[in-house]
């Protein structure tokens, strides 16, 4: 979705010195926003692993004696139209959003890295073919591409992960292509060739590790936009189906009761927005640190 | 300069042709007969034969491919068997409300970005902090949630605007704002960065030395300079607005291309979905090509190369 904002690194040639510089930046000062984002991501991970720590309610169990109860001590986020605890549903929802978002990111990473490394090779044909392929995929708006995938493959969590993952391939592909070209022409690779190392050894020992360092940072930012796209597709009813406590699905369900109850329509949205912000801020910070950009 | 323009046009044609090819490959590579994929959930006697006849499925694959590319390129997307209409008619009849919504939202997003970026760039640290937090928040908020919040406040509580439908300008206000805000968030970020970079340029110092007011410098000189790179985002913004329009139409129950597409997705009406997706890709490619070419023509620094 944000491939247009690729900050294709111009400073990656200095990759070898980046870690030392990174340490210096870390010691200086970590901005409060980054700390808060990191803490929020940690909280999300706990909610994914052990949602029972946060709430005793079952996210699927309706209580017909307490339908659409406003937030109070027993139900901090209130209850929805079936009397289900909105807080419990929001906590359990972290699982779906993170799993689908990270799943989509993994798909983008795997295919983006493969195609990007191919595009970064010496062959002009490979480069042109793969680069045009990235152009083709990114000419489809994410939501519409996803709708096409769902038409072919059907609704469901796995399929929307595939759909969003597909549209993210060019982002990683382009980053990896640029990085491959840089590393391929770096002195240490040339020297390895001169020393008579085999192509396979050079690929696995020098090229691949130095190409892959670019991936985790890009991936962290991408998880945010993947979660955003996934929530939209879930809202449209293309992903998990009710009664799954997925945030987009919950918001879609809340629309029917907005006239009388605001809380089912607010808290899952806050959760999505905070999650996306947290991954974006954290990812951008990693980018600044590892690219050695000075932001102060 | 003209070489650059021609190369850009050539690359766009390749991308457009590639997207048609991808569609063709998807139809043929997926498990199941093409007839079954195009028929979706429908099944009545003679349907599969009609589809096979329409797309010439008994011919060789190469021949089918040439026929497919020619048809799509000439704007013929075949029949929607679900709606029993030519896909072109379905799309044409639903296009206007969506274009209306997307265009209004686009203009709104652009205006918000220009005003906010011009006012906040290069100011004190606090103002910039606040501005960047606001932009990040809007860029990170799902379109549909903004719609739900606006509905909650302005339709259900204040009753200023209708809850759904598409009659009159009042029904356009909330959907347009909904669709505009995330785009405005991103645009403001980009434009503000560009303005701040421009403010450091030597020509701004010259303007200050000549005694121009801050407002004159920003509005007449810096903004024009900084807005130019935004043109390269145009295609991406249009694509995003089209995608967002689908979701916005769903939130506000508006008729339009998005609603039609969503129904087509849910009833597996492949020809309609394929047509809309390809159309969006063509619009993206056309818009970004035109803007890139304009950019080369307008920017004197690129002309010299």
Automatic annotation (TrEMBL), chain A:
Record GO cellular component, one term: plasma membrane
Domain of life: Bacteria
Main location: membrane
Membrane-spanning parts: 30-54, 96-119, 140-166, 213-239, 260-286
Membrane topology: Multi-pass membrane protein
A single GO BP: transmembrane transport
Pfam assignment, any one: BPD_transp_1
Domain ABC transmembrane type-1 per the UniProt entry, residue ranges: 94-283
InterPro entries noted in UniProt: BP-dependent_transpt_permease, MetI-like, MetI-like_sf
Keyword Protein biosynthesis part of the UniProt annotation: no
Compartment(s) of residence: Cell membrane
Gene3D superfamilies for this protein: MetI-like
Keyword tags: Cell membrane, Membrane, Transmembrane, Transmembrane helix, Transport
Family: Belongs to the binding-protein-dependent transport system permease family.
Protein known as: Peptide/nickel transport system permease protein
Organism of this sequence: Pseudochelatococcus contaminans
UniProtKB/TrEMBL annotation, chain B:
Pfam families: BPD_transp_1 (PF00528)
Protein family (similarity comment): Belongs to the binding-protein-dependent transport system permease family.
A GO MF label: dipeptide transmembrane transporter activity
Keywords of this entry: Cell membrane, Membrane, Transmembrane, Transmembrane helix, Transport
Subcellular location: Cell membrane
Taxonomic path: Bacteria, Pseudomonadati, Pseudomonadota, Alphaproteobacteria, Hyphomicrobiales
InterPro entries reported for this sequence: MetI-like, MetI-like_sf
Membrane topology: Multi-pass membrane protein
Protein name listed in UniProt: Peptide/nickel transport system permease protein
Record field: transmembrane: 12-30, 99-121, 133-156, 168-187, 226-247, 272-298
PANTHER family for the chain: DIPEPTIDE TRANSPORT SYSTEM PERMEASE PROTEIN DPPB-RELATED
GO cellular component, one term: plasma membrane
Domain (ABC transmembrane type-1): residue spans on this chain: 95-295
Principal location listed in the UniProt entry: membrane
């Amino acid at each position: 979705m944000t491939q247009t904002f690729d900050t294709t690194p111009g400073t990656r040639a200095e990759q070898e010195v980046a870690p030392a510089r990174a340490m210096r930046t870390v010691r200086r000062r970590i901005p409060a926003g980054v700390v808060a984002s990191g803490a929020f991501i940690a909280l999300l991970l706990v909610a994914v692993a052990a949602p029972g720590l946060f709430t005793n309610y079952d996210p699927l169990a309706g209580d017909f004696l307490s339908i659409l109860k406003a937030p109070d001590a027993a139900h901090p986020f209130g209850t929805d139209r079936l009397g289900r605890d909105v807080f419990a549903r929001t906590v359990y929802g972290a699982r779906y959003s993170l799993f689908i978002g990270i799943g989509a990111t993994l798909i983008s990473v795997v295919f983006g890295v493969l195609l990007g490394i191919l595009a970064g090779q010496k062959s002009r044909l490979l480069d042109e073919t793969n680069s045009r392929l990235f152009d083709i995929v990114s000419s489809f708006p994410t939501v519409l591409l996803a709708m096409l995938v769902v038409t072919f493959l059907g609704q469901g969590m796995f399929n929307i992960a595939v759909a969003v993952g597909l549209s993210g391939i060019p982002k990683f592909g382009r980053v990896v292509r640029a990085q491959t070209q840089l590393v391929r022409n770096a002195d240490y690779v040339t020297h390895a060739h001169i020393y008579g190392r085999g192509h396979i050894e050079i690929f696995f020992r020098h090229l691949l590790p130095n190409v892959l360092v670019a991936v985790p940072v890009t991936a962290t930012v991408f998880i945010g936009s993947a979660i955003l796209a996934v929530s939209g597709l879930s809202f449209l009813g293309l992903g998990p189906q009710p009664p799954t406590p997925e945030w987009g699905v919950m918001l879609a369900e809340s629309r029917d009761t907005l006239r009388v109850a605001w809380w089912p329509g607010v808290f899952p949205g806050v959760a999505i927005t905070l999650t996306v912000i947290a991954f974006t801020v954290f990812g951008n910070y990693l980018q600044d640190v590892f690219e050695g950009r000075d932001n102060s | 300069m003209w070489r650059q323009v021609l190369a850009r046009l050539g690359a766009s044609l390749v991308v457009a042709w590639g997207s048609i090819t991808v569609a063709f490959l998807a139809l043929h590579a997926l498990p199941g007969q093409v007839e079954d994929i195009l028929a979706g959930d429908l099944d009545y006697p003679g349907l599969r034969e009609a589809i096979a006849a329409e797309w010439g499925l008994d011919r060789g694959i190469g021949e089918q491919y040439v026929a497919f590319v020619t048809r799509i390129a000439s704007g013929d997307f075949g029949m929607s068997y679900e709606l029993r209409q030519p896909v072109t008619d379905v799309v044409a009849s639903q296009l206007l409300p969506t274009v209306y919504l997307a265009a209004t939202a686009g203009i709104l997003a652009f205006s918000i970005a220009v005003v906010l970026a011009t006012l906040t760039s290069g100011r004190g640290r606090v103002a910039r902090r606040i501005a960047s937090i606001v932009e990040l928040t809007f860029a990170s908020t799902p379109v549909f949630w903004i719609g739900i919040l606006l509905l909650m406040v302005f339709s259900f509580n204040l009753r200023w605007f209708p809850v759904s439908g598409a009659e009159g300008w009042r029904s356009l206000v909330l959907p347009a704002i909904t669709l505009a805000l995330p785009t405005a968030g991103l645009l403001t970020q980009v434009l503000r960065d560009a303005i701040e970079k421009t403010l450091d340029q030597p020509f701004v110092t010259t303007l200050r030395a000549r005694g121009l007011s801050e407002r004159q410098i920003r509005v007449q000189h810096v903004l024009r300079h900084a807005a130019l790179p935004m043109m390269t985002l145009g295609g991406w913004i249009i694509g995003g607005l089209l995608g967002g329009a689908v979701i916005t139409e769903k939130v506000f129950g508006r008729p339009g291309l998005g609603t039609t597409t969503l129904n087509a997705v849910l009833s597996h009406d492949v020809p309609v979905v394929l047509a809309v997706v390809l159309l969006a890709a063509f619009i993206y490619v056309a818009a970004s090509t035109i803007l890139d070419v304009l950019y080369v023509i307008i920017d004197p620094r690129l002309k010299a190369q």
